[in-house]
## 1
Amino acid sequence: EGHLQRKNQLEVQPNFVFQVGIVQYGENVTHEFYLNAYSTTEEVLVAAGKIKQREGFETMTALGIETARNEAFTEAHGARPGVQKVMVVVTDGESHDNYRLQKVIEDCEKDNIQRFSIAILGSYNRGNRNPEKLIEEIKSIASKPTEKHFFNVSNEVALLTIVEALGERIFALEATNDQQAASFEMEMSQVGFSAHYSQDWIMLGAVGAYDWNGTVVMLKDSNFLIPTSNAFDDSFSERNESLAAYLGYTVNSASVPGDLLYIAGQPRYNHTGQVIIYKMKDTEVEILQKLSGEQIGSYYGSVITTIDIDKDTYTDLLLVGAPMYMGTEKEEQGKVYIYSLNKKTFEYQMALEPVKQTCCLVHKEKDCTNHNKNEPCGARFGTSIAPVKDLNLDGFNDIVIGAPLEDDHRGAVYVYHGNEKSIKKEYAQRIASGGDGEKMKFFGQSIHGEMDLNGDGLTDVTIGGLGGAALFWSRDVAQVNASMKFMPNKIDIQKLSSDMQKLKLYINSTICFEIRLKSKDITINETDIQYWLTLDSQRKVSRTLFAETNERKIQRNITVRSSECIKHNFYMLGKPDFRDSIKVLLEFNFSDPESGPILDSELPNSVAEYIHFTKDCGSKNKCITDLHLSPFIIKLNNLKFWVQMLVRNKKDSAYNTRVYVQHSPNIIFSGIERISKDSCDTGQNITCKVGYPFLSPKEEVRQCAKQLGDMCITYFKYKQTQIMFENICSLPTNFFFLEHSSFKNPTLLCTLSPCHTAQWRQKGHSGRAKCSIRCYPLSKGAKITGVDNTDTGRMQGGWKADAERNPSGWKWMGVDGASAGLPGGLSKADAERI
């Protein structure tokens, strides 16, 4: 009596193919509207949206069913003779009149009313109550077979997940005109929804078979094999996981030694999706494995691809797409699951995901800076997955995956290279659609890469979208090997130190390139290579420069046929730092990277070589030093003094050796004797560099520094370099004497004053030549370690000589001065710190 359109829900048509009425019950029963109240779906939706839930303390389910049977299904209220009557009972609690249910159900059977019952378990789950009694009661309301008429959902929102399945059940009643609600079998099967040609069987997906649970029709020669409804499912569960699962949405096969496996996807199974792996045993389906999706609505199993990576004729990987997999921002990001084949079992290996998409919609987020015009936002990565023949000519087949919703529905594809029996997780290339997204959308919706389309011997790739297709020619792959040689290949530090004062030390470098195409069928006449050469690349300031430019970096082009070399010269600067070798970095690429061959990604596009400094450390090439430092204070005059330091090395030569001198703020630097080999940097502290290299075993260096007030450093073999210090304090001094056993002259005389500065001067005492100093405590660790009262009794405190605590070679000689207590008015703590 009219036509029927099947969509996501039943359509109410003007000629009343379907009519809908609603009865609400609780303590009482109310007709919200009758069957003939509205003639379009839109009118029904508007009216239903205005219904308010009625509250009460009882649930009279039997009364509600009885009222609907007696009053709703009447000709006066829209019921028509010969039209199937359907009642859907939705409740979230046990009835208070369940003693009447059996009689009411029997009356419905007599009136041929098909009943679907839905139990909402939300209040039971929230209250942690057992819903078993409710489920049994609601199942008793449903028509037979119960598994096709009964639903239960975890909460009210989950009702949305069964709307389509319920509509398909009701649609089946009209389509088959079966008063017992028999299921569809092959009437709406859509055989050929997907297809795959294997070595043995042709596979035809039939997603509409068996109430859209789906199946796979197997064709061999001219014989069809249609599996039974339960061939892929042992039984229908109470939750109806397999309802409208769409088995056969995509089909494929896998080759293993001695056998062939068949694979079919069910993207709607249990709302998370499933993939079934099976084989044919004569004409029977033998299920080997089931793989399940992890996220509701992800459409896991809607895309399936198998690939032989290493070209040994056997399948290596199974790739399963879940293009509607939700990301962290609820965008349809998409995901592709990779399974490796172990004998006849697929094992999870990894998952691939696209570049993160920024979802920013004008009508939802006011702070957007880059607005998306289209919804849904995301990528739908995995909408298409295509095995392609070896693109990079490394001997392994590759994978291309489409993401048609990327870049605001412009689309993109990702290329992944094979690697032995797997693929590399990082994509090798991402190809974006470009353009404004108006003329062509959904780039990457379909992909094919099995043929050479331009006759160059390389596999080409075709990528389709809404509004057109793009053809991509593959480019050959070039292996470029670069090398560098240096003459001399090592730098003699001692020779460099002397030569730098006269002539520059030059190093000759030879740069060579060798190129070979990986395609055996194609030869190349010549190609241009652009290269960059950087000297001392790991240093901020280079120790060497190119002779032609006086710069550390150059860029040049070279035309290479099969191999070619070029020379560059550079010279060393007088930088006294030879701890690390000179690193020379060579980087290169084709001069025109957009045409011709591409560089092999498996080979580096840069080369680094080192120029080492020679070290006289024997065959081990590792110097083990043994440095000793001895400081001495030497007099000059009343306001100036010297500090001499003796540095000894008892083992291998020392490189980059430095001596540091720290002095107090009241000391002013006066001057330093210049030495050709060594240098000192002055300031608040003094740093002196000790030779390159510094000394072989048993050699020593002396250096003397002069500054204002307290210290001085010198070093060089048997020669003194002097740094002078001047005292900015001229206060009356008291003094004491120290002498060192290793010196014939002088013995040190230290004069103490409150300003704690130093002064050196000649003074005779006990028949010996003495030098006097006003001292400043440079560190808290310095101490006066012993006292000998035999020479003088003017030092109060009675300090006694202590040979064990004396610094090596120093002896207390006496004091001179008129102050009481400690010299110069110092406290004992001050004296101990000197």
## 2
Amino acid sequence: MSLSNSSDSEQMSFEGFLESCRAPTLLAELEDDDDIGDDDDENDDDENEDDDYEEVMVSRSFLSFMVREDDTYAPLIGGPAGKKRSWDDEYVLKRQFSALIPAFDPRPGRTNVNQTTDVEVPSPPEDPQQEIANTLEEAMITPGYSSRLTLSLRAPNLPGVQDVEIDLSNANWTIFHAVQELIQRIDFGVGTRQEKLRRIWEPTYTVIYKEAYGGDDRFGSLSPSSLPVLSHRGSVVAPLTPTSTSACSVEDVLQLLRHLFVINTSSEDTHSPLIGTLDMDETVLSTEEFTSKKMTNKLIQQIQDPLVLASGALPPWCEELNSSCPFLFPFETRQLYFNCTSFGASRSIVWLQTQRDVSIERTRVTGLSQRRDDSHEFRVGRLKHERVKVPRDGDKLLAWAKQVMLTHCDHKSILEVEFLGEEGTGLGPTLEFYALVAAELQRRDLGMWLCDDDEVDSQPPTLDLGEGTKPPGYYVRRSCGLFPAPLPQNSAACDRAVSNFWFLGVFLAKVLQDSRLVDLPFSNAFLKLVCQGDIQNNINERIGMLPRSCDDDPMISSIMSEESEKELELDPPKLYSEETKPWFAGILKETDLMAVDPVRARFLRELRELSNRKQRILSDPVLSPDAKVRALESLALVTSQAGPVTRLEDLALTFTYLPSSAVYAYTHADLMSNGSDVDVSIENVEEYMDRLTDFCLESGISRQIEAFRAGFSRVFSLSKLRAFTPSEVRLMLCGDQNPQWSREDLLNYTEPKLGYTKDSPGFLRFVNVLLRMTGEERKSFLQFTTGCSSLPPGGLANLHPRLTVVRKVDAGEGSYPSVNTCVHYLKLPEYSNEEVLRDRLLAATKEKGFHLN
């Protein structure tokens, strides 16, 4: 690969050109990682190490090396600072991974880098909300430059073959990804894709750099129209002209499958017009019937290609079908694809190494391996662990957690947490930190979640979510789960909620990135927003195609014009104008409002029935105008509760939203300008219903959801979760929130050792005690032994490492059980009966902290 200026006659040095274009600042945007490791380790022991990968894997972020001023990169720029520097064609560029450290080398005499490093977290400021607000503001600002550097890739530089050039304006591409795109555009005289790919290393690829002038704004805004090759969803190129009407394309088949899947999965909705006339006993199919084994095998084959996966150059159909047609793949396959592609190249490389280790171990167990492989020779590196230390301070834990996430949100390394003044390190304290923060996020006084003051009386007298016993109403506990509280978007209460939702986004993304579990009882409606809707919301999206304007088709345009005129005659436009809708508009329906706010939803349903009766009166051709007026004046609300009928005007409603709790610190929110002065009447009841529903499900939670997405996307893109249903996302985030086990599960998946066997009386008493535990006691036991109150998907069978029970030596009836949480290691004394064992075990679960035992 070579580097060239767009003008051979230009005498300006490359370094000077970069500096004039402010390249250091510009190219920093293209980097995948924040910091660049030292280059010294790469030169150690060169005689024993070979580069087993192609140099073309180097990301475009390698260009940032050219502008470094230290001597480490002197060979690249021709010498130390102060001398005229030029490009060295012999210099080899290698991509750096800030989340990786050198692989462990077991050979004698080798020095290995410690995998865990300490990271200093600054103390929380007096106003952490302002710091997050500044972070959000910076994220919304598009940087401007007086001059810009644009890049393109040219090939093949071969005689007799015309050169082709493509823009490198997509910051998410690696060089290898660009090479794959470019090779398909080159006319070698051979037509098949496979033959072109076999010749991928024949051309010389030249990176062309030039200064962007005037309207060349390819770096200023990565809008869908500016991205080369990719569609608006970053996927397959599709022709803008329609295909032949007699041919059935792949997109048509996929769209048909999507419609069939929606009809099948909507069977529970008895109000659906698609379902009303169908015999559901015959039409309901298992979702497994829609799974494609061939596509599943093909997807698994693609992600097992090391070069393609590590360089982020998977075929576009992989991402497209995962998000548009997730029913084609089982949950396990989609989760596998998610884990190996969502978290950057460092995590992908470690995933590949882990898969290779599993494969080698499998062949050794079966006796197929004839020799011992030196696994360190095939390792690029190990994943770095970064440890932070925070105080176990209940009052300031959330503020410290925000500082941790602000510091670590852009890092791809694994986050570890240690509590100050405690000896415990590793997985146990880290899981405890996540559990404590999850409990803090459920606090009622934060004003984040929808709640009702009347619900406090129905809560249990005390509640312990890991922070000790709390009084009723301390946490938001609702049967439907947590849902954002609608707030006036320009209020101080909303500003506080926005700060917390940004933190929640980073927090949940870190949970997924590091494979943790948190016990947060989210509502199904909120998880719908996290998934960016489901397949029913996205059914009308064309598979892999750019959205085509109907104006391009004169026939469609004419038909739509005629229909629009008829619709305007029958239903004149409303008096109020629609504001700009948020990105999640239309995802939530009235059924979701019924789940999260049933009282308000029932009232809206009564208003809807009143509106329907009004419309029937107005459309009745038999009634005279005077009769219609009298009929409208006699309309009254029909409630589900027995009592006198009520006219709408008697309720004295105005265009305002009244909060369900005093915790939000506001009395009402106007649904329109001066809404408190506008009365709700039979004439404008429809507008009131629309505005109230919109405030509850969209406009009242808009800033909160935008902040959540912004925080989540600091770790990885929220769009990656489009491949999953709300229930699947709940399983990935929270695990099994209602842990259950049977005697067979405990005997099969719990390992008694060092003094206990599966037939020991002490161990059998332990099993009996676990079987008698209530739901909350099971969660407390899991929190005590594993650091998380939930079980992974699959229950005890998928708990790794397995729960190990050993006999605690020199311990009598008065001693208590203790644990090594990191390895799920329970030290249990031999008690004389089950009652004593139960009392001691439950007492131990209430103890907090990680100390030597």
## 3
Amino acid sequence: MSSRARPASVPAEAAWSNEEQAWIHTALDDEDRQHGLFRAWLADGALAERSLYRHGQRHGLQVFYRVEPPRWAVLSRVHQDIARVELTAADGNFGARRYFDGDDQEVNERGVRVPPRPEGVSEGASYIGQSSDCWVEFSPRPAGATRVAGSRSWDAAGVLRRSRNWDGEGWSRSYHANGALAEEGQRDDNGLQHGPWRTYRDDGSWQETEHFVRGELTRRSEHIPAGRYLDARVTHRAGAVQPLGAHAGFLRVGRWTLHGDDDDEGELGALQLGSVGDDDTLLGEALADGDGPATDGRLPAILSLMRKQPALSLCAVVRALGAGDPDARAAFDTLRAAREQLTAAGRRAMADEIIAAFDDWRQHLSAAPLKDLLDGLLWGAEPAPLLLTLASLLLRVGHPRRAHDFLAAAELVVEGDNDDEEEKTELEGYRQRIEATRALILRDLGDHDGAERARQLGRRRRISSEELRLLSAIAVTPDADEPRLVYADWLTQRDDPRGAFIVAQCQLAALAESEQQRREHLERTQQQIFEQNAGAWLPPADLDLRTFHRGMLGAIAIPGDAFCDDPDALYRLAPDMRMLCIDTPYDPIRLSKTPELLRYRGFDLSDAFVDSDDYRHLAASPFFANIEALRFYNASLGDEDLAAFCRSPHLARLRSLDISCHRDNDVTVEGIRALVSSPTIAALAELDVSRLWLDAEALALLCRAENMRELRELRARCNRFGAACGELARFEGRLRVLDLSHNDVDERGLRLLVAAESLCELDELYLSANALGDAGARVIAEAPLLAGLSVLELDAGLRHRAGAVGASAIAAAPTLAALRSLSLSMNEIGDEGAIALAAGEIIALQRLDLYQNGIGDEGAIALAGSEVLRGLRWLNLDANNIGQRGARALARSTTLSRDCTVRLAGNDVPIPLREALQERFAHVTFRYPWGGPD
């Protein structure tokens, strides 16, 4: 804190914070956590924030006012007429958000006045515009309930339309426009449908019930009112298309068998859904001319007959249909004869479903599952053409949903891993047919946007084997220019402007600084090519020229749907990219079935909203077999989600796992238990569990687990390990990086920690915001096992700050002489501590962070003249008390390197001395990293 003139609007109990660049008034609980009313004023006295905290987390009403600069980023993204934003929060989770203009009228984020709130709409609901759900309200997560926050939505008339988990017990409900209940059911703790889900008509009568077990549909019952015609020509699908085994030809298209309760009683009968031909013709003839009276049930009937007669070739029949083979009639005559024989024997080969008939309801039981169709794969048919043809036939006889299943199966075969170049070429021809067929199916199902996207995908350019070879060479040798220039030449020969772009960027990277004219020409060339063509390189991603280096994309978070639509587009731009960063929107099932995941060594879902179903599908993907790093920072990860990955047989190569969070992950000690008992994750080298607020039991599990012995990097900021950090003495591995910042570690726990043999090879140690102070600094200085340390971070929290005594102990410690980076920000070392560091033993220091340490001119003079700090490349002196004398000494320093970056924000440095400092050092700044006044 520092003294400055207090505006009249700021109360006496508020104190100025250099870090916040604001007047702050807050209260702390017994554990140094914010608790109660929090207020912040800018330097001119303008109120910027008024919020409530409960034991360190935002809880209650949060109000942010429009000031310059804004304290909350959202105010820079909404309409300029918005004067304040109000949010509700519970235990750190934000809920409803409301906006108000300068006249104190409620508006939306675009500054448009919100209509009067209809009667019945909660005051906590936010207006989101004219749609079926105009008003939406989110609830906090109830203690001990599911991890999914509740929500309610109302239409423009104030009629409740949807309610999910509002009672904290997992119930989801939707409502008709007249307010009548439309659907209700419960979800388990992982968000999966579980138990009966009932659907009601708008008159309140029961329509049907679907029974789920942990997300899997097991039974469906339908209520048929008296006098209403029963149209039973419907099949019901549960489950996703999945590959079985290593061979792409073995497939299961959904799970079509629906089971009834053993106690059900009623008359069972066969329902015949059509004959082989209404006019004594056959399905093939009706389909061949395209306008015959195709009746539901014919194709299942024919294939069911063929299953009874294995001598018949389904492949031959289907190919005859498509090619107009003159022998097709003979094949159908054989089928008809077989049917007559079966009918004479009393077999009901035509049955598509069996109906359990009761007085007022019917239960549908599948009698001819789609496995009958897939049995054709065993009779000499190649999978891709057969499945694609069956999809087309099913669409034409009125089964678009079943057709879509077969299309997905055909796509799995085509996209499967295949090393045969000749077969790859043959399968490539089916891809455009697949997308064209998909467009027809989706249009038939009413998904016109999906149909248009499929139509566009049918025209996309696939990577040829020759181009794949060139890109693979870049991936193998990412530092070499030659493979890039060879690929650029290949592109130029095909009139692709990216060839010239790659050449220009490679030449730019190799230019000497003196060739300014040539540099300007190449920069104009790359800019022109990029502006004219980048929109087609990776739609719909918003590419930035600054992220390209030597012609290739460096890093990007790509929407999952865009990646699945055209994974080759990303590979063309970044063949050497190891970490795939997925952004929303995305379809988890589709993403998990994308073979191009095998190209990447890392998978990042940070900051994406992911539910348990998504994680379950991703964890089961065989295309994660090459993944070495998983990053789920702030991605709604729970214990069961983590357990799903721990059970996956496809993650044997995993070496790095990040499950840290800001506030959205929900991993507890049970998730850690699943991790340490994983049968496949056996050699983890890097683990980040920061901000999960784990306790001592979790640390004990990690330290004693056999599959954690290869761990070299453990990042565990913001947990509750405290004195239990001594458990690391039981760890049999050798850590290189350890981060226990914000863990309530005190002097006693620190002594146990630094005596652990597992730290004898430690290179980086982070212990910020613990209960250490001067005593902790002395313990570290005296620890012989830390002799190899190169990075030490001892930033202070709100209390337990180190002073000159602690800084002197570290500066004089021979065991710390090899430190390359030292951070002591927000302590109170003052001039005396700075003088000690300047005269100390740390001769290899390259980075020194002394932010907000009460250092004045004397300390700055000592640092400027230090022989020990000749190798310094970064010096942070922000938010100190350095004035004219100290600044002049730094500007005249003969020991500090010209290449050293010097930070002096928040110090009283006159303008002339600022100019002198800018001449003395190549990089000097007087602004905080987050902005603010000079």
## 4
Amino acid sequence: MNKIQNVDHCLLNHKLSIKPINYFLWILAWVILFLVFCHASVLADFYENFESGNLSNWTIDGTGVIEITTATSAEGSQSFHHNDSNSSSHSDGIHANFTGFQPNYVSFYVRSGSTTASDAYFVLKENSCGWVVYFYAKSNGKFLVYPSDESFSYNANQWYFVEFQNFDWTTRTFDYYVDGSLIYAGCSFRDSCSSVDFIELYNYSPGVNTYWDEINLTESGSAGPTPNNYPTAISLSNTQFAENLTIGTIIGTFSTTDADPGDTFTYSLVSGIDSTDNTRFVISGSDLKTNEVFDYETASPYSIRVQTDDNNGGTYEEIFILNVTNVNESPVIQPIADQSAIGEHEIQLDIFDPEYDNLTLSASSSNTNIVSDNNITFSGAGAFWTMTITPSDNQTGSTTITLNVDDNNGNVSNTSFLFQSIPVLELPENTQALPGGSFSLPLTLNNPENLGIYGLEAIISYDPTLLNSTGISLTGTVLENNYIVETNNQNSGRIIICFAANNNVYSSDGIIGYLNFDVIGGEGQSSSLTFVTASQNEMNVITKDGVFTVQINQSPSISNIANVTIDEDNSTSLTFTASDLESSPCSLSVNISSDNSVLLPNGNISYTCDNDTYSLNISPISNKNGTATISITVTDSLGLFDTETFDVQVTSINDSPQIDTISNKTTTEDTPTNEISFNISDIETNANNLLLIASSSDTNLIPIENIVFSGTGESRALVITPVENMNGTSTLTITVSDNDLTDSTSFDLTVTPVDDPPEIISPIANVSVNEDSANNTIDLTGVFSDVDNDNAAITKTIQSNSNPGLVNASIADNILTLDYLADQSGTADITVLAESNGKQVLDTFTVTVTA
């Protein structure tokens, strides 16, 4: 078993199991407890795991590559590293200041890129005093802690967990641990300081990265968080398994060696060296299972690479070699197709035994009358065997042959196939025909070896009291047009048949002739059809006889048909079957009748037939309801019949009322339409009880109230009055309703415009003035209006003045001017004429002049 540790994790033999967030919660819990019970100050005074991704809490000193990296972290995902490529100063690195305190526990992770690196330092000190802890990785591959301990040897590119415990601030000493092991007890402070307030990390070796992580200082008095121990080994309970196991079979169970109690482990197949066969297996929980069926004979050792994860960040990988063990397998017999043969028949067998055992073959027959077990023999060896089957003398028919192969090591395989011993000439096994009918009996040639047929002879006997031979026909047979046939049926009860090749020699099989008979016997009688002799190419051959039975005519049968219910004005369809043993499909006579021709006349019932399944279409008369009984009778050619009856119930439904179509209408402006006549009707409702409703698409032109209905019963009328002085087109919809269903008709009413004369809107008032009064004017703008034209188009003139010696009247620009003559008094009637498009209106007023 090869043990290989993952490159990224095998170096991390120890790491802190408490993640940053868990560590924070742990600190917080201790703070609360301490404050409650001891009223003490905060315990964790300094902690850094570089998970923030920056050095905002640190000050960068000197030169070199100083960064957070994710490539080689000891905890979480990130760590700090420094590469002093310029090698300019021992102070190249980072430092952090904090409030001075006396830690009792200090820890950190460190990893050096080379055992020859010079001076990778971790320094903890008090600025005003000096160094307290002075640690560095020396170029001789040793860790040194002041004053002089350098007993611990380190490896390049491996993480180490360093701890300083049990600080005694009186004696100025502490204990030094690496990866949990005590290295030196009672290390002295470098300087006799009373606290620490400064930490520094730096590297003096050019071109070598030094990594730091998980820096922790606490005055809790404890040893701090316990580091997580990585898994160190994986075991598999079984590395061998038998061939031919089903997919998903458990091979073995994994377990992990890990120093940490209570760790739980997750196992997975991982890529890497020797992971070639990972896909052939799967891991479920801690179980390794097969992912394919393995064969020992084609198998080789299988290599998989497995990782265990302690779910605390620690992983370990190991390679396992798995072997398939041999299981003695049953012989494999290739399937044997069904066989047919005339006489003795050989079958080449294909048998394979994976272990190449000595095989014993045997066989059995399900019908020993056709083939006895003793008539099945074998020859051959290994994978090549021949089975010989010999049917019993002149026996034809089928039997199931079962082949058994024993490897003499406890495994037996078998397979079965159908063997048919066939005749050269055969008649149908059972033939039937109705009394008084005729039929053709096929004579079949079987020729599996495709021999050339030069001649055939046969004598066939039958019962002449049942059958009368009428000859033989080659029409539609394989010998048609190529063979000469002669028959002799003069000897009652026997037919002599001779076939001879005329043109091409036939070398296949099929129907070679049809023997024609008339049926003269009664129902139920039977006759054997027997080959007396038969030969092919002047050699006797195996034949198969037949039996003819005069058929007993059976009545046709029609299936039950359930009653049907449909709504008025609807059609329906249904299916039924009608069959007869002696009749071909759909050949029966079918008669369909209805007892209610008012509702459902016979002509409204039709059918189609497909393979004795009849589809019936039923269409009752529209607007009729009630019940009709349908009778269906099917009759065969000999007059036997069967009848089925069922009811078709048509339920009444409310029909929609009907209204005549009304054509488009025209009227002139300010003129009602003539009376518009139309009819309404309803099958179930008296016409006087029907409701008429009108609607208008333009109620400004035709309001609903301007549509007036008249009439009674089915004869109705309406008159439509357009709004005065309005013209245009409105679509009118007239709806008739029986309070459930409706019918509507729509038509357009076009109102053509008419030119109206001007109108007097505000008559001119009479005028009274004193003699010798000054002229006065009257504005005629609001006196007249024309609904058809702009009022400005109305012309106004003086039509008459009864007393021009009293006052002169004139109109200009819609202004009427009255000019009184001097020293005159009396009255004058003045008439103003307003005209638009030739239409006029007159307005007369009186002028009175008082002396």
